[in-house]
UniProtKB/TrEMBL annotation:
HAMAP family noted in UniProt: CobB_CbiA
UniProt free text on domains: Comprises of two domains. The C-terminal domain contains the binding site for glutamine and catalyzes the hydrolysis of this substrate to glutamate and ammonia. The N-terminal domain is anticipated to bind ATP and hydrogenobyrinate and catalyzes the ultimate synthesis of the diamide product. The ammonia produced via the glutaminase domain is probably translocated to the adjacent domain via a molecular tunnel, where it reacts with an activated intermediate.
Protein name according to UniProt: Hydrogenobyrinate a,c-diamide synthase
SUPFAM superfamilies: Class I glutamine amidotransferase-like (SSF52317), P-loop containing nucleoside triphosphate hydrolases (SSF52540)
């Protein structure tokens, strides 16, 4: 097989985008299986996922042995897609990018923004279309023709037919597709699906499945290896165009981001109105005038405790990389198992996950709940997103949590999902008031009240509201953000760790 080393630098690493006409067509099975199959053949595979999803990259990491990374043009801007891709693909022979939803689906009302098609164009990568052929025959040609011709800048280089019923069915499909000129690079038969359990927010994360997740990834790899033309897929990947510019680097990103002033939290006000323009408001570095004297800095690298484990498995890899580049020592802890925070903890970051699934276990770990409450009471910085917000509440589904926030959380039947344009309402350890950022919400829970006296963010869509809490050194919100879009967030947080 041809490898990335044979064609040159990371800027020309062979790459494929695995897309589909719609969700549920089999993208995750094909993408994860292809990653596993190529890895099993000795290739260093760089795994990527279009969009904000945290769960699929966990399976990608299991398949490749490398960190799964997201490429989200809404959260980070289209201009960061190629640099972030190149950062993840350093030292790899090939990259596989799993798309999101249908090929041309993206942020609602924003055209191609955040779609798989947009990312494929930015990366100059050929697209492999995974088609659920279970209820189709000759019509598959019309479907593929439509996707091939819809946007001439998107190069569909092959098709993988999924859920094919029989040898005769395969013959009919192949004959129909001959007229399109698009090669069939794989046929996966209609069979018992690979066991990948789901629940209220999608697939069960890898961190919770252990041996079952390993078995699932191995099964996907075997399925793709048997049914797909791996040589043909690699050859198509090698046809990707070269990319200009440098790979993203956390240290360089911080250098180009102005040092943030340290400010004291201020009372919230009505959220500023984000400017409207093509693609909406862009993220801004968290800058602004200081309103308090700068305290004396502590010597050495502050320890930032990053929540992990089965209950808190959602985080973007660039967050820890930026914290490290800003001078912190990032140490992971598991709120389900650890009764103490890492020694010398100066700040805590608690990302997303499923605390609602583990509420009883989290509640039973009273020692750690008290430690986190104590850190927050001391004024040290604590950043919490979604699951982290629930954990900091007084209770979750009636079970005691950390009690940092005077709020109650509970499960809900209503799914809250979507991108958000946000403006910081209150000065905090992450951002100065007025800072614009983009985020994503994805949960089936409710926090009451939804905002504190000093809210974290103001948002306009789907309705104008404030949400989240800024109290002392605590910033807690439902909003998932990608810190690569505003590296100054990490610098500001670490500076607060040094001075709190």
């Amino acid at each position: 097989m041809v490898t990335g080393a044979a064609v040159g630098s990371v800027r020309s690493v062979p790459r494929l985008v695995i897309a589909a006409p719609a969700s549920g067509s089999g993208k995750t099975t094909v993408a994860t299986g292809l990653m596993a199959a190529l890895s099993a053949r000795g290739m260093a595979v760089s795994p990527h996922k279009v969009g904000p999803d945290y769960i699929d990259p966990g399976y990608h990491a299991l398949a490749t042995g490398r960190v799964g990374r997201n490429l989200d043009a809404y959260l980070c801007g289209a201009e960061l897609m190629a640099p972030l891709f190149a950062h993840g693909a350093r030292g790899c022979d090939i990259a596989v990018v799993e798309g999101v939803m249908g090929l041309f689906d993206g942020a609602s009302g924003e055209g191609e923004l955040a779609s798989t098609a947009q990312v494929a164009k930015v990366l100059r990568a050929p697209v492999v279309l995974v088609v659920d052929a279970s209820a189709q025959a000759r019509s598959v040609a019309a479907l593929v023709h439509g996707f091939v011709s819809f946007d001439p800048e998107v190069r569909v280089g092959g098709v993988i037919l999924n859920k094919v019923g029989s040898d005769r069915h395969e013959v009919v499909l192949r004959e129909a597709l001959e007229a399109t000129g698009i090669p069939v690079l794989g046929v996966l038969r209609r069979a018992a699906p690979v066991e990948t359990p789901s629940r209220h927010l999608g697939l069960v994360p890898v961190a919770e499945r252990a041996a079952a997740a390993v078995a699932a990834v191995e099964a996907m790899g075997a399925q793709v290896a048997e049914g797909c033309d791996l040589e043909g897929l690699v050859a198509l990947a090698c046809s990707a165009g070269s990319l200009a510019g440098a790979a993203w680097d956390a240290g360089e990103a911080l250098v180009s981001s102005p040092p943030p002033p340290l400010t004291s939290p201020s009372p919230g006000a009505a959220p500023p109105e984000p400017p409207v323009g093509p693609g909406g408001p862009r993220p801004q570095a968290p800058d602004g005038p200081a309103v308090a004297a700068t305290p004396v800095k502590k010597a050495g690298s502050p320890v930032v405790a990053l929540a992990g484990g089965a209950a808190f498995s959602f985080s973007y890899a660039e967050q820890a990389e930026l914290l490290t580049a800003a001078g912190a020592e990032v140490v992971t802890f598991d709120p389900l198992r650890d009764e103490e925070l890492p020694e010398g903890t100066s700040g805590v970051v608690i990302g997303g996950g499923f605390p609602e699934v583990y509420a009883s276990e989290l509640s039973a770990n009273e020692a750690l709940r008290k430690r986190i409450s104590g850190v927050a009471a001391s004024g040290a910085p604590v950043a919490a997103e979604c699951a982290g917000l629930l954990y900091l509440c007084r209770e979750l589904d009636g079970m005691p949590m950390c009690g940092v926030l005077d709020a109650s959380a509970r499960m809900s039947e209503r799914l809250t999902l979507g991108y958000r344009d946000a403006v910081a309402v209150s000065d905090s350890v992450l951002a100065a008031s007025g800072t614009r950022m983009r985020g994503h919400e994805f949960h089936r829970t409710v926090v009451e009240p939804g905002a504190g006296a000093s809210p974290a963010w103001g948002v306009r869509v789907p309705e104008r509201r404030v949400e989240g809490f800024v109290e002392g050194g605590v910033h807690a919100s439902y909003l998932h953000t990608h810190w690569a879009s505003a590296p100054g967030v990490a610098r500001r947080f670490v500076e607060r760790c040094r001075t709190s």
